[in-house]
Amino acid sequence: MEVGSVIHKEGCPKTLNNSAISKSMQAFADKLAKGKAGLKKYGRRQAEKVMQKLGAHTATNDPMVEEKVKRVAAMDADLQALYDAVSEYLVAVSVLQSSSTKVAEIFESIIETKDPRLKGATKAYVSKNRLVEKFVKDAIAQTCIETVVRPAGEKLKEIPKLKEKVNLRNQKVLDYDSYRSRLNVETAKNPESEQSMKLLNKVERARESMELITSQVTRKCLDIEDSNPHLLASAFSCFVACQEAMSSRQGEIVRPLLEELPMAAEAMCLICKQTPEEMHE
């Protein structure tokens, strides 16, 4: 089929005349003009993004700043995971202690009539376990909240403020890139033109704004990162201390009762057999 021909529905080629070709070219030009007009509707920054994605313009990159922002983003995810895990831990510990008390109370109500010999032991266990339950809610939970949950929560509140600055910096970088690209085009045509001078001033102002917000982002990232090691060390120390405190209190309750429960020896032997060898070291 010849160039400049089209296929009818019947499949027969028909050659276009010069007038038809001109109309086609004009239609294409109109579409191109509309496309450019549409691009302007996006605004200077969005238009610059499009041009950079197309490879027509070069983006300004700062690997050091981008790396700092990535590290803070990773720290944000870690802190959120820690915050959620400790919150879940506190709920689980509270439920465990409440369940322990409930089981003991059921034993007490049954044994009181079925086996009076153990009445004293069950009564003592219930009474002391209620104290441990209160201890967990008042001391353990409060310590975890003050040492882990609240500091992590306060640190997480700083992240959105940083994200706002990062977004603002991205906009300022786009401003700079847009003016710089326009300046390159203008100076290639006439470096001494009035438009070139205007664009040069805009580039310099955009550079100053970009550098100012970049320094703010960098400083904020460093502030957040510097306090993180201390927060994590304090949080982990608190967690270990709480675990030890709960274990100690539980031991203080059950250890004296074992003397009144000789059948507990069988359970202790079974527990020892089921205990992993690593825990015997």
From TrEMBL:
Single Gene Ontology BP annotation: actin cortical patch localization
Ranges for domain BAR: 50-281
Keyword set, alphabetical order: Cytoplasm, Cytoskeleton
Transmembrane residue ranges: none
Gene3D superfamilies named in the record: Arfaptin homology (AH) domain/BAR domain
Listed GO CC annotations: actin cytoskeleton; mating projection tip; medial cortex; Rvs161p-Rvs167p complex
GO molecular function, one term: lipid binding
Database matches in PANTHER family: BRIDGING INTEGRATOR 3
Name recorded for this polypeptide: BAR domain-containing protein
Provenance organism: Triparma columacea
